[in-house]
Design goal:
The chain is an alpha/beta fold. It folds into two domains: 136 residues, Rossmann fold, CATH 3.40.50.2000; 147 residues, Glycogen Phosphorylase B (Rossmann fold, 3-Layer(aba) Sandwich). Helices cover 46% and strands 17% of the residues. The strands form two sheets. A six-stranded parallel sheet has the order 2-1-3-4-5-6, with helices on both faces. A six-stranded parallel sheet has the order 9-8-7-10-11-12, sandwiched between helices. Strand 5, helix 6 and strand 6 form a beta-alpha-beta unit. Helix 3 packs parallel to helix 5.
């Protein structure tokens, strides 16, 4: 079974599903690889499944998500043997593995940026980083997603906030917990994500903080529709957080980190905060106070970004066509 384009990932993320569908690439989502703890078994299984997919489909174009840096490096090495073009969808963690603190992994990251035919990133600042490393880049933000239909839940607070959290190192979740003590006790903060691996206990938190644990997609959609606003924070300067796209899709107010990337793309419908408890508390209070205005702004911005994304998609398809034509001519 031969396919023109396939998309390979070792993780389960909305961006993979949205972009593969929009770019007419068959998705191979080997998400069980990400859950394996033994690295030898994990990478051996990932390599075997990836090679099997390549043999079965014989694609002319392969997209992959980075991270995994191992997957991306594997595809760089396999490209001459299978003859495909490689387009890497590089997230911040793929461009800056271990937050950029490992010189070896940063060198590998720069190598795959140079060897890929094209690297997709979420914004122009990251595109400039790839170009500076000798790669070819295209900035394509996430597509404004379609959120599953669901009934609104009855929640505890007079006002309810959803803190979209994975307990990653770039998320100031402890500051959000501290902020909960500074806001009106009638405002409840629901917190997503697997808290057990971070040593977080419900009994240690303020009573207006509710840990939801990991939510399935239908459960997550229901929570998004039920809250007054969302919080999604990062210490990374050039990171566009996934939760902001999802919030924008429902025209809900957002409390976001005050970074240039987030201010630029989510330029309306949002309150921007520093990574301190007081700033986060003030941002939550402001979002509730100006909720109606922020909802109107978010709806307008959502429509604008959706139109812009379709224009970007068209431009990307043209670039991919030129890469294909150039390689075919040189074959």
């Amino acid at each position: 079974m031969k396919h023109n384009a396939i998309w390979i990932t070792w993780e389960s993320q909305r961006r993979n599903r949205e972009l593969s569908a929009a770019l007419d690439a068959v998705l191979f989502e080997f998400s069980e690889i990400d859950r394996m703890s033994n690295r030898v078994t994990k990478y051996a299984r990932g390599a075997a499944r990836t090679i099997a997919a390549l043999r079965r489909t014989r694609p002319r174009l392969v997209f992959c998500q980075n991270p995994s840096l191992v997957l991306t490096l594997l595809l760089v090495f396999l490209r001459p043997f299978f003859g495909f073009r490689l387009c890497v969808d590089a997230h911040n963690a793929g461009l800056f593995p271990r937050e950029g603190r490992s010189s070896v992994l940063m060198a590998v990251s720069r190598y795959v940026q140079r060897r890929a035919n094209l690297t997709l990133v979420s914004n122009e600042a990251l595109a400039d980083h790839v170009r500076a490393n000798g790669g070819r880049a295209f900035a394509l933000p996430d597509k404004i997603p379609t959120i599953l239909p669901s009934e609104r839940r009855v929640l505890r607070g007079a006002h309810n906030i959803l803190f979209i959290c994975t307990y990653s190192k770039d998320e100031p979740y402890k500051e959000v917990f501290a902020a909960a003590r500074l806001i009106d006790a009638a405002i409840c903060i629901y917190v997503t994500g697997n808290f057990t691996r971070s040593g977080i206990r419900q009994e240690d938190l303020p009573p207006n903080v509710i840990l939801t644990g990991f939510l399935s997609e239908p459960e997550y959609a229901a929570m998004l529709r039920s809250v007054d606003a969302t919080v999604d924070l990062t210490t990374r300067e050039d990171c566009l957080v996934c939760g902001a796209y999802e919030t924008l899709a429902l025209a809900k107010p957002m409390i976001l980190s005050d970074t240039r990337a987030l201010r630029s793309y989510f330029s309306r419908g949002a309150v921007y905060v520093l990574g301190t408890a007081q700033s986060i508390a003030d941002g939550i209070t402001e979002a509730i106070r100006t909720k109606t205005t922020l909802e109107i702004e978010a709806a307008e911005l959502s429509a604008l970004r959706a139109r812009e994304w379709e224009e970007k998609r068209t431009a990307l398809l043209e670039i991919l066509g030129l890469i294909d034509a150039g390689e075919q001519a040189g074959a």
